[in-house]
Structure formats: structure tokens, C-alpha cells
Amino acid sequence: MKRFLISIHLAAFTTLHAHAAAADEAKRYTVQAGDTCAAIATRFYGDARLVDLIHGANPGMGPSPHALKPGTVLILPPRPGATPEGPDARLTRTKNIVEVQAPDPRPGKPNDPLYRGNRVGTRESSTADVTFRDETQVKLGENTLVVILGDAQARAARVGAQESTLVTGSLRARLSELAGKGTDKPRVATEGGSVELKSGEAQVTVDDKKTTRVAVYEGSSTLQAQKKEVAVNEGFGSKADLGVAPTPPKPLPEAPSWSSAAAAIALASQPVDLTFTYRPSAGGAGTVPASTPAASAPTASAPAPAPVASAPAPASAPAASAASAPIPPPAEWHVQVARDKDFNDVVVDGRVPLATSAIEVKNAGPGAYYARVSAIDDDRFEGKWSTVASYVVAQATAPPLPGRRALLRIEPAGLACALDGAPVAGPIEIDRSAAHVLACEAGGARAALDLPKVSLGRVQAVAALERLPNGAAVMRVRVVDEAGTPVPRVAVALVSAPAGMRVGPFTYEGGAYVAPATIDGRQQGGALQLRVDDDAVVATNPLPPDPEPRVHVEVAAGARVSRVLQQPGAGVSLEGRLAVRIPAGELLVGAQAIYEGVPRGTSDPGYGYGDTQVRADVLGGWIPIGYRLGARDARFAPYLTVGFAGFWSRGRVEPEGQSIRSRALMLGGAAALGAEYRLGGLGSLGGLGAHGAAFAELSGRLTTDIQGTRAGPPIDTSGAAFSLGYRYGF
User: Is the model's pTM score more than 0.85?
Assistant: First the structure.
């Protein structure tokens, strides 16, 4: 039985311990619409001062106050045993010179904790935001000094009143939803009075004469001074001079309206100047009931309602005036331009004369810009902000890539843009050899930017002459940029070429621009001049000479007229030889076969018979060795050859009525002097180094017969010949 009771007690203890442990475990909470960190802390922990537990367990939320997005899951750690002594507020934004005295002065920076008695001060052109634990936010203007008092009357499970002392300057306070529902309202104390912020948004200022002003833009507030209290409703303001009771509420000046479009976009390739233009409200100064709360500042054209009777006002409130209170005209403007909708990142903030009707932003970079204007009357009361005008600056940049491409970037991201009518999302490569049109939209406004065709800049053209298998010649030109990357799809046209060359038109094939080439004669080394894309005239690298082997073969055929046996003859010749290139010319060595026919005629062959009728056929040849003068690409080339000759003759000798057949072998020497004229058109046939030339040649030979070889009287083959022919080289 005892064991049974012990088991029950142990089980009960284990169960209770498990429940306690589960209660101490972290929870997950899904954010609902309208939630704030302070409201969640109050709901789950019963104390808004524990909001830092939520912040610590959910890093990455950014600076406070947080705009919680519905559906976000937050980690809620267990409540600690004792309420932590966290800061009363935090410095959530600073611009320019902000100083914190805690208690020693130091530069303020975002997320600095602020405790009771700490001071926050701003200098000229400097602003700061202070966010309390219940997420009530106070925006400090320039030259402002505030003392943080915190929630000195905090109670368990309830948020106490957030208190601050405004020593000098101005602050705008926007109450959080949690602060608006609490019993104790945030208060701002001044030397001349005290302002209780009941709901919404209000501005409190203290000038150099210690006059306290409160202007209510949303909700309501009260101004208390000299034991008098005035309720100030939306669209009204009240002031209390030092040592004087508050004045009755008076209407605030109306905000101006925009002369320019409420939303605009600028599209450029560099920073631009923006202008927001505005004008006073169209109706001028109107009237509103002095004691009638208004949902918003009335328009100047609204008719004043008829006077109404009202009960005597209590001691804590001013007597309601039956007369209508006029809306004061503006005396100057307060202008602001920011890069965010909440006007935290302010780029323009100042007061300008009444005659000013535009806000200018110089050298605005890419991004959205938001502008608003409020009116300040001659009693230094500032009215509501105008509606917000927006201007989006879209900046398109296209840093170059190899090959005249470019990477088009558009800032800011997320704009609805189209390039040449096609949607563009993110960076895109474009071909800058053609013009483009970029169009972007934002807020219903549209802007377009022409992206002109860009200059090629410095390019290089590398040309090469190539032979095709069919013997034709083509020119290949490779156009590259400074990085050596081919530049495709550009127009290439010939401006000039070396003498004797005709090229074109060009087409783009396989990374190069190809054109047929007609070569008149041997191609000389030289550069082409090309016009690339109608943009620049560039010279190619010099073309190499038409390559030719050091040794090449030549063949020739010619027709001959000769003088043999003291009478004319005619014949043909065939020749083959080698040409060896040397400086300024060529060495020649070869063999020539010759046939000459001598018709029957009177001759004195030297037999001692007197005039003799001789008819002969001469067949033979010789081995010429010589030198041809001239460069390889010369048009005219003379030459001289000498060599050993051998001929065989056969014929009929008829001295004094006799008829004697004759055969003989003759040996001797020969020489020739000739000249070539090279023909360019024909010279392009065949292959590398090929050339063709017409030649004229004068030759002579001296021979003698070899004893024992003649069958009759020998026929002397010595003589001279003149030849015309064609020589072709491989």
C-alpha cells in the first residue's frame, strides 16, 4: 500500500513537473494583422517591458519599431522569473550630429538604450527617432533636447505612462496602438506646461521664449498650464506662453497641393535633378467651428456651419466660441524629401519662404524619392503634411563587355521595364552595335530612354589572303576589340587596297569577314583600309607577300624562226627548267628540245661543189644555264642563258644534179638572250607561287659534226633563231 501511494505521488510529481517544463518552453506565434511587438509582449507576458525578449529571440527583425508582417512566425521565449530592468526607450534612428547624455555625453547611434534621466539632443540639420517600450515613437527635430523619464508609474500587467521632458526644439509623437488603449497616456512635459498624448499623432514644440505649442494631426491631446487644461482635437493647435494658461484651440494651416503629377519617373544613365512643385490650397483661408472636432483638416471651400449653443465649459476646458475660427494662411513652408515612405531616410528637410513653390533635389541617384509639404502660419503653428508625391529615378547603365556587347543594369530593382518592347527582368546582355529603346513604369508614370548605337572605339582588323582548292583567292578579315575579342555582325567595306588587288563585298562567316579577292599580278605586301560599321576607318596589318617556294619548276612552249644553212627555217621548242630564287633574281637550269625545218633552197654547205640544193630537218636541244634578273613580283624580267647543244640532222643534198642523203650528229654550244612579261591574270592560276609570262628570245648556236656519224655530206646545224612563247611556273 505504501508503495502504491508512493507511486501515485511520484506520478503526480512527474506530471506536474512535465507541465511546468512545457510552460517554460519557447512558443511559436504567428503574427496577426495589427500586431506589434509591445502588444504581443503584453498579451503573453503581461508586461510590455519584456519586449526585448521577443527581439532577442528573433534576430534579423531590424531596428525598432518593427513593421510585423502577418503570417510571420515569431519565437516567444519563456518569461523569466523576475521582470528584467530593460531600457525605457531606444535611440532607433540618428542623422548627422546626435548626442546622448547617459550621464556623460557621447555620440548617439542607432539601438542605443535610453534610461530614465538620459538626455537626447540634436544639432542643426540633425534629427533622431526615440522608440519607447510600448513602441510609441517620438521624432526629434533639429536643435532639440529631450529628457527621457520612462514609465515611472509602471504597474504589473499594465503599461505605465511614458514620460519625457522637452527642453527645447520640437518633437512629433505617434502613439502605438498599445499606448492608445492604456489608462496612463504618454506625456511630454515642458517648462511652461504639459502635454498628454491621448491618441494618434501630435507635434510639441518649445521655442526660445519657452512657449509650448501642441498641434494635433490625428486623434487628440490636451495641453495643461497654470492649472488650466485645453482639449486639442485633430486639425487644431494650442499654445501656452511661459506663466500663461493655454490658448483656445485654433485651426492649423492647410497643407498645399501638388502642381506637378503626384507620381513621376525619370529614366537616365546618370544622376538627375528632381523638382516637386506645389501651390497653396485653392480656396485660400476658410473657417471652421472653433470647438468642433474634425476628422481631418477642412478644405478652404467648406462652408462654415451655423453657430450652435453650447453648455458652459468646465474649469478644465476653455469656453466654446460660437464664432467661427478662420483657417490661418501660411507664412512659410516646411518641405521634406526622403528615400522611404516613412520619411526616415530624409535627404531634404527645411523651412522655405512662402514665395517658394518647388522642392529641388540635385544629382538624385537611382531609387524612389518621396516629398511632402506642410504650412506654417505666422504664429509658428505647423499644419498637417500634404499628400505624398513620389518620384522614381531609374538609372540604366551599360558597362561594356568584349565584342561590343554590354551588360544593361537598371536600378532600382523591381521596376517594370521593357527593352525594345520585350520585358526585362534583371541585368541583360545587349548588343550595342544597334540602337535600343528602354522604357520603365512606376506608379502609373512612364519614361523612355534611347540607348544609341555606341562607337566601336579602338578596333583592329587582321587580314589574310587565302587560296581555295579551286584556285580562287579570298580575303579573310578578323575584326577584334582591344581585348582581342571578335566583333561580330558589323558592316565591313573596303576603302583601299594595294595596287593590283580588288576585294569585296564582305560577308560574315565563322568569326571572320570573307570577301572574294581578284589579284592582278603578284600581290605585294601592304595593308588594306577598311570602314567598319560606318564608324571608323581602320588599317589591317600588312598583308604578307604571295608566298612562293625558293625553287620552282617552269615549262615553256614557243614558235621559232631560224637561219640555218644560210636560209630561213621555222620550228617549235619545248622547255623545262628549274628556277632558284636568289637576291635580285633567279638562277636557271633546264633543258630545251627544238625542232626546225629548213625547206629546199640553195646553199653552200662548204663541200666545194658550188651552189647546192639542200633540204634538212633539224632535231635536237640544249641544256641552258643562266640568270634571270628582277624581283619575284616584277612585270618585266630579262634573262641570259648559255649551255651545251646537241643536234641531229637529216636531209638531202643535191650538188650538180646529184642527190645525196645526209645524216649527221652535231655538237656545240648555244646562248640565248630573252625577256619575260608577266601576265597577272593568267598568273593566278595553278597554285602558290604560280606565274605566267610571255617571252621573246633571240638565240644562237655553233655546232660541228662528229666524224664517223655522217652518211653523206654533213648538214651544218649552226644558226640563229628568234622565238615567241609562253612560260608557266609552278
Answer: no
